[in-house]
Design goal:
Helix content is about 45%, strand content about 15%. It is α/β, with parallel strands linked by helices. Strands 1-2-3-4 form a four-stranded parallel sheet. α4 links the parallel β3 and β4. α1 runs parallel beside α2 and α5 packs across α6.
């Protein structure tokens, strides 16, 4: 997504380490590059960091092209969510109805999307990929989690994962 560069352009001011361009032209380019580099090994095309603000879920031409990727190439379609509006974004994605998987931040400290992840899996057959299950390490130092884990004789990480699966 950044022309496979690790270094950012120098002398052009602050730049992001990633490009969040969900336009049709970018999708066409990424799909072609993925197919050229990975060929038959591509199984999933996942939109990275989808948000309502990015417009990717309301762009009819992008949605149409994604469906064509599934039909023409057999790729599954997914999206990863980011930001505080991830529940709203997932609700919109469920309405769009074309996605096979979703990746979302979900942990004992951020569980706002939990009910929608369950719905996505149970009602829409979507695979659910949990990211930041340990809240970037904060769960491991959360006093109530530490105390509950000690009381049960398990690691904090095991308790956090069990809580997510419950």
């Amino acid at each position: 997504t950044a022309d496979w560069r690790v270094a950012l352009n120098e002398g052009e001011g602050p730049q992001s380490h990633e490009v969040k361009d969900h336009s049709l032209n970018n999708l066409i380019g990424h799909a072609a590059e993925s197919e050229a580099r990975l060929g038959r090994f591509v199984r999933l095309h996942q939109i990275h960091s989808a948000t309502l603000e990015s417009g990717v879920l309301s762009d009819a031409m992008v949605i149409d092209r994604l469906v064509r990727l599934r039909t023409d190439r057999g790729w599954k379609l997914g999206l990863s969510l980011s930001g505080p509006g991830q529940a709203d974004t997932l609700a919109k994605a469920l309405d769009v109805g074309i996605f096979d998987s979703v990746q979302a931040t979900y942990n004992p400290m951020e569980d706002s999307v939990g009910g929608l992840l369950e719905r996505a899996h149970q009602e829409h057959g979507m695979e659910v990929i949990v990211k930041e299950a340990m809240a970037n390490g904060r769960v491991l130092q959360c006093e109530p989690m530490v105390a509950a884990a000690k009381e049960r004789g398990v690691g904090v990480d095991a308790l956090a994962i069990a809580a997510l699966r419950a």
